[in-house]
Amino acid sequence: MTPIRSLSTVLICGLSAGLAAAEPVSQSLTIERLATIQNMGRMAVNPVTGQVAFGTTGPGAGSAQFIRVMQPSGSVSIFGNSAITDPDAVVWDMDGSFGPAGSILVGGVGGLFSVNPQGGVFGFAPSGQDVVNPEDMVMGADGALYFADYGLSRVQRLSIHGSFSTMMHTPGQTKRVAIDAGGNISAIDSTGSLISSTQSASPGTYYADLEFGGDALGWDGGTYAVDAGTGALIQIFNDGSINILASGFLDGVDLSQPNASDAHIGFTPTGEMLVAIPATGAVYSLVPAPGAVVIAGLGGVLAIRRKR
Known about the structure:
0% of the residues lie in helices and 45% in strands. With 308 residues, the chain is mainly β.
């Protein structure tokens, strides 16, 4: 994929001089800030190349914005030859279910769009009774697109044949959707509540994001989330108990502001976990620290030394 144009104005590698908040800390993970990206929407990691796509928020729901792509080197570029209205949600379509293979699917108030590897933008599902305002999207193993629609308060499925179906309703507006290796769907709504048939929630915990890990670097296919109340990165076990892996992701953030506790989690092809915080624009890389043990799956997994 070839970036369309440089975006040096939204990327600051390393620590941002404009942010006084302390960086997150962990006893079991090595944490590195990769970039600072302003007006960050949803994050999606390319499972093959490690490129990271970002949706864009602001200055208003009716404004047209460009999506961005971060290369593994850390450089960020605007991508696509035309802007999309309120492009919050993004996901990589590696199989070409809704456009050429390697396209980025984008959800906005105007519907669902595909940005092909050459930057061409086209809509494939206009807004209507089945699409109002996608906030998060994932591709299923069946090639279908699953998205959390904030306006409909439900998780929707769009098949490769173009038919919609409702997979899950949430009490509040639906903000996040995740699918595990078995095809089980979990969602998070605007109250931070976890809705899942397979995953129990820890009492009193409000979630900003949820992601299922892979087997690389000892994550062992576990369930990971960011606590919207404390800013901690946690691992959730099947009984709802948690293990705190890192803290401080929301330090210095005014949590009284709308969507201030938002966070995004993803995994690169090499196994690094990425955590992005829209309120600060920070994008972090996390790996098990040398010599540390991360509790995952059925027990402790010896950490693997980082290679970059």
